[in-house]
Design a protein that fits this description.
Elements (H helix, E strand, L loop, with lengths): L7 H13 L3 H15 L5 E3 H7 L9 H6 L12 E3 L1 H10 L21 E3 L6 H12 L5 E8 L5 H9 L1 H10 L2 E8 L9 E3 L6 E2 L4 H9 L12 H11 L7 E8 L13 H11 L1 E7 L5
Helix pairs in contact: 1-2, 6-8, 10-11
Length: 292
């Protein structure tokens, strides 16, 4: 399985050689410059810094070209790890609640301040989900929904979640939670682009067979260009779930991509936040590195 350290970086190297007609030494020098500029002790690098260094634009990237390029030199950068820093910035704005919109009913809780985690790799994602559950735990029962970006680069992340689902559900059970799940892709190019487990009905974390089966059945693929239907996916989930808790409701998004805006259904950050506030849902996001 391709790990996160063999990232979009390697794909961009091959595309740079083909598109810019530069030789391997020049491409290696450009990548080394980017790593030295931003890599840091954890070896992370922002996608846009890499693209700027190679003179490329986001519009020149798509899933197919990135995936094809993975046959290229696998150890140009060793442990470097590419994060879409624009996705992190978008997520940090998105988890701040709309405080001007009232919850839709007397029993609807207020949407709270969510959190954003930049994951250290696919194998860390289950632990990151458990960390969010623990950090966000309040008084009384909770509703927790995992919303998965199911586009082509997210296969290793979903696999890790499925392998560790018992541990995740055990953490949710500690929070006296009911759970659900959903996925989204790119509403402009994918069909279906959205799916919801169990018709939107939640189930006890201690016996969440429908949620488990749904996550195991999600088909990874598609996505088109880099931004995905984050806003539409959150809105569809918030509106589609039959929320039960009067104390805490939350969505945990797992993605590696920025949000389309406006999205295919017309949603933006503002319209998404309005829906979350009405439904009393706190949004949390885990950003993972890019890999195919």
């Amino acid at each position: 399985m391709m790990t996160k350290k063999w990232t979009v970086l390697l794909s961009v190297l091959v595309m740079a050689i083909a598109m810019m007609q530069i030789n391997c030494d020049e491409a290696d020098d450009a990548i080394e410059e980017a790593v030295n500029a931003l890599g840091g002790e954890d070896g992370r690098i922002c996608l846009d810094v890499l693209l700027d260094t190679l003179g490329l634009d986001r519009d020149e990237l798509d899933d197919e070209s990135l995936a094809d390029a993975l046959e290229a030199q696998e150890d140009v950068l060793g442990e470097s790890y590419v994060i879409d820093c624009e996705a992190t910035e978008t997520a940090e704005e998105a988890v701040t609640p709309d405080t001007t919109t009232e919850p839709e009913g007397d029993d609807t809780p207020e949407a709270g301040e969510g959190e954003v985690i930049e994951s250290d790799g696919a194998e860390q994602v289950p632990g990151d989900i458990e960390e969010v559950i623990e950090n966000q735990q309040g008084e009384g029962s909770e509703d927790i929904v995992i919303l998965m970006d199911a586009t082509g680069s997210m296969g290793d992340d979903l696999a890790e979640i499925n392998d560790s689902i018992d541990s995740i559900l055990a953490k949710a059970e500690e929070a006296e939670a009911k759970v659900g799940a959903a996925f989204y892709k790119d509403g402009f190019v994918d069909s279906p682009w959205f799916g919801l487990a169990n018709g939107g009905d939640l189930e006890d974390a201690s016996s969440a067979s429908a949620t488990t089966s749904f996550l195991n059945s999600v088909a990874i693929g598609g996505g088109g260009d880099l931004p995905e239907s984050f806003y539409d996916g959150v809105v569809e989930t918030a509106n589609g779930i039959n929320w039960e808790s009067h104390t805490k409701r939350m969505i945990i998004v797992i993605t590696d991509a920025d949000a389309l805006s406006p999205d295919a259904e017309g949603n933006t950050e503002a319209s998404m936040k309005e829906v979350l506030a009405k439904k009393g849902v706190t949004l949390n996001t885990i950003i993972v590195g890019i890999a195919y």
